[in-house]
Records
---
Amino acid sequence: LLPQPLVERGIQCVGRLDFDTTGLILMSDDGQFIHKMTSPKKNIGKIYDITTAEDLTQAQILTAITKQDLWQSTPLHYAAISTNNDQAAVIRAFLSPLISMTDRASVISQKNMWGFTALHNAATYALGANTLVASFFDGLTTTQKRAALTVYDLRSRTPLNIAAFYENSAF
């Protein structure tokens, strides 16, 4: 689809746009740059601003923040180890007024295949953990907070054990 002079120069698209979308496409003749920007292994964050025809429902938001990947990790697990805009987007969804306190407590206690909850990840990696932990606990009862902090991973550690080990003051 590119003009012949650009094809001859080796210009390629960096990424793609999906059907019925608008946006910016970067183009380059630098193969290393293209690989760095598009390879999932390079962990380059991308921000997507979407508009929906109708407001999202509680069930749709809850599904989005609890969907598990191959390792049974949820977006909240990844938000706990991330410092980019992905973390903010996940936290905004988690704090949606449509998500009940009971559902929030359940979501932060959801384990991945290693038995880690999002709080275990926050305790381990501590990247922006103060804001993250405060967000996790926003509006929860003392009982719900205590329950979330006493979940054991596969090595019988709680988020508090891990936080103490890593001297993570967020907890």
---
Amino acid sequence: VEGAVLVAQFRRLDEIRERLLANRRTAQAILAEVPRLAFRELPDPDGDLATHLVVVFPDAASARAVAAEIGAITLDTSGWHVYSLMEHLLAGRTITERGCPFDCVCTDDRPAAYRPGMLPATDALLARSMSFSIGVSDPNLAPFGVTIRSDAAATAVTAERFAAAARRHLG
């Protein structure tokens, strides 16, 4: 039974990806009309699955205000998606007793040490960034957005809500 379900879903993969891409295009077109908003640069736009549209605000205060208004979060508070919130990374733990980057032969003799604040440019970017979810449900990364079943009209309504909040807080 599991195999049959997998085959059926696999056959729908192109259709699902096209829906995600179309919904991201819809949301991005609406949000692009808001002055001072930007978007994360995609290193491989053709290979992207389009499950997130990362919106970058000019400052952390406006990003936090919009996030609070629409029930979203900024990426600096997104749990294990951020180095500074990964307890295991900060403590130097890996899944096994030995492993990169803390205990491995592929690095030099300097100890690997991670601490909050060690990447100030990354921290600043994450504090002013928010993910508009497209087809995924992850309250620790992107609690605001559309579902896999959302069509263009529903995506437009949701994007307009985001855009209205952004306009209010960006002046």
---
Amino acid sequence: AESESALARARIAAREAEAEARLAVSALELARRDFEGAAAAKELRARASERARDLRGRGVATEAQEETAALALSQAERELIARERAVDAAENRAAVAEIALERARLAVRDAERALADTEMRAPFAGIVAEARAVEGRRVARGETLGALLDPLSWEARVEAPPRDAPPARRE
């Protein structure tokens, strides 16, 4: 019973680890998309800043317009760095989730092996004469858990008056 419940707990933990791994992979995909969006926004801000600088050089734009475009570019660059860090963090979470999933799968295999090792076998089919095993208690390999009687090897000695005894046979 203990081995069966240990296996059930290991399987539940493995399912939880699988769910965590899926969430981590999903978060990583979202982080990568956010990064791509931030990279595209930075490129747009870089072009706008370059355009503002060019227009100011031609006397069409003001210094304030050029500074506003440069500030927007600077903010886009900071946002891109933040998104890059978010991708790194998501990659690390996904890697940790994969490791946890592998550990959970190993725990399931160990629990399955432990359950398989709990099988009790007798060397012959017989009648249980004594049972010392207690459900849920750990036992050592080779420990005596009870006694079996082999009904095919029974012998009986009976005393009876000669008149009631069957005729003797020699074997």
